[in-house]
Write a structure and sequence with these properties.
It is built from four helices and nine strands. The chain is an alpha+beta fold and about 160 residues long. The protein is globular, with a radius of gyration of 20 Å.
């Protein structure tokens, strides 16, 4: 008679809670119209849909008091989804620090064909480069040019231009 090992309760719990995919990235913005214009007109994403929601459901999910939010879903050329959210009481909730080094700061990395053209385009839309494009000095992405840009809501985007092979 052979006995089979049974998975421990903690192994089952970990397996059941494992991440299976990334669905989207969300950014809270001060103006949904301005954000949609930037993401679609400047970065080339497509607007998939807009909606509004609020009430107890949203409060229970987000923990935001008296939440009313306008949302827009924009999609990158490769299909990656970004959700833009404008809360009705947004300014009361505060803003993210304007430093990529702040605890909790996040960024979205976008692959571009020409990093200098991408920076010029976002600067024309009112965003600012946080530094200069620099090549990654080593590792599997050696030679990839990278630079951060940031907009009026302190959303940080990293542009990455892979080296020509």
């Amino acid at each position: 008679m052979t006995t089979q090992a049974q998975p421990s309760e903690s192994a089952v719990t970990i397996d059941a809670a494992s991440v299976v995919a990334v669905d989207h990235t969300g950014f809270t913005v001060s103006s949904l119209d301005d954000a949609v214009r930037f993401w679609t007109g400047t970065l080339g994403f497509t607007l998939e849909r807009r909606s509004e929601m609020g009430g107890d459901f949203l409060h229970q999910v987000t923990g935001v008091h008296d939440p009313r939010v306008k949302t827009a879903i924009v999609k990158a050329p490769d299909g990656y989804v970004v959700e833009l959210l404008q809360y009705s009481n947004g300014a009361q909730n505060g803003t993210v620090p304007n430093s990529a080094g702040s605890i909790g700061a996040a960024h979205l990395a976008l692959v571009v064909r020409d990093i200098h053209a991408a920076i010029a385009r976002v600067e024309a839309a009112g965003w600012k480069a946080k530094g200069s494009p620099m090549p990654i000095p080593g590792g599997s992405r050696q030679g990839t040019l990278v630079a951060y840009v940031s907009g009026p809501d302190h959303i940080t985007i990293e542009f990455m231009q892979p080296p020509e092979r």
